[in-house]
Write a structure and sequence with these properties.
Elements lengths: L4 H19 L9 H8 L3 H7 L3 H25 L7 H14 L1 H11 L1 H4 L2 H31 L9 H20 L12 H11 L11
Helix pairs in contact: 1-2, 1-4, 4-8, 5-6, 5-9, 8-9
Organism: Cloacibacillus porcorum
GO molecular function: DNA binding
Keywords: DNA-binding
């Protein structure tokens, strides 16, 4: 029976999630295609229909994680009446490690990247993440430009510079968090950072347009 596109996408997603379950607790070299397939309730043939090999799977898993985050972020930035939720989005992302079981698995998997993944996979994964960060920076820049046009943000703010600053700070914090270099309670103490950006950006000093 011919599979529908929806079924194929669901199978692919099932394999990716099964791989995440395993790779969050087990190193890459000791994880087999057979193990991942069995965890997903599929045959090895089904695995190879969707992925060339383990390295391809791992890279597509990293890419899918970036895409999920990017879609959520893009929805926030592209909807003018939701602009007030930008800070809430960042705060929620920084709190995920303690509140979201899937994110905790991602944390554990990514923490293994520096010393367990093959060099060529590390390099490609790094490029995927760098490209994701660049798209994020451009999205922030468009958001600031929109805010200036709507009169919510100061006109004299250099949009490119502020976009680099915002995206770099929060993605830097994100990477430090993944590496386990931030206190677990860090996300509870970020309002001072958000309020600083409010003062820099907002045309009305009494407005709180970025913090949820």
């Amino acid at each position: 029976m011919k599979r529908t596109k929806k079924e194929a996408l669901e199978t692919r997603a099932n394999i990716l999630e099964s791989a995440l379950d395993i790779l969050s607790v087990k190193n890459f070299a000791n994880t087999s295609v057979t193990e991942i397939s069995k965890r997903a309730g599929l045959t090895k043939g089904a695995f190879y229909w969707h992925f060339r090999n383990k390295s391809d799977l791992l890279l597509q898993l990293v890419e899918s994680i970036c895409q999920d985050n990017e879609e959520s972020f893009r929805n926030i930035l592209s909807t003018p009446h939701l602009s007030g939720e930008l800070w809430g989005y960042y705060k929620k992302e920084l709190a995920k490690l303690e509140e979201d079981a899937r994110y905790a698995k991602i944390h554990m998997m990514m923490a293994r990247r520096q010393y367990e993944w093959p060099v060529e996979v590390q390099e490609r994964a790094r490029q995927i993440i760098v490209d994701y960060f660049e798209r994020d920076r451009l999205a922030v820049e468009r958001f600031v430009v929109l805010g200036q046009k709507e009169g919510r943000f100061k006109k004299d703010i250099p949009t490119g510079d502020i976009a680099v600053l915002i995206s770099s700070i929060f993605h830097g914090l994100y990477m430090m968090q993944l590496a386990g270099n931030l206190p677990k309670s860090f996300s509870e103490h970020t309002d001072i950072l958000f309020d600083t950006f409010n003062k820099i950006l907002t045309a009305d000093e009494n407005a709180v347009l970025l913090r949820n």
